Amino acid sequence: MSEEFYPMPLFVRMSVRDVEASARWYTDALGFRSVYAMPGADGQQVMNHIRLGRYQDLMLVASQQDADTTASHDSFVIYINYYDDMEELARRVSSTGARVEGPAETRWNTREVNVTDPDGFRLAFSQVVNMNRKFSDVMPSSVS
To answer: 84 FRET partner, CA 20 to 30 A, in 3, 18, 44, 130?
Structure first.
């Protein structure tokens, strides 16, 4: 089955200890399917975009925490498509004293502003940089 790639209005990125094992569990236990898996320098999966249905997407990414660390607010990031001025968003959030990173371009053809709210939850406001770029031109070959 060929997956449709479309702008996702919202999806959750989850930091996990073992991307491949987590993706397999979501597939086996819950019926998700892998849309795209990204290899790291060592060939192991560092990201796996999984989907249950249209707009039911999760992005599993390799955790940067030690294996013994328990989950915390920063173990996931809520991504939201943002259609207004990213610089203004960053200034507005910064003026509240909250932590702001960006705007910055990513290698996957987006520009993002990352925000940590007062309770420690992380959100990423994201815009496509170039709508004319094909997915295959932006992302390296997927691993299975």
So the answer is: 3
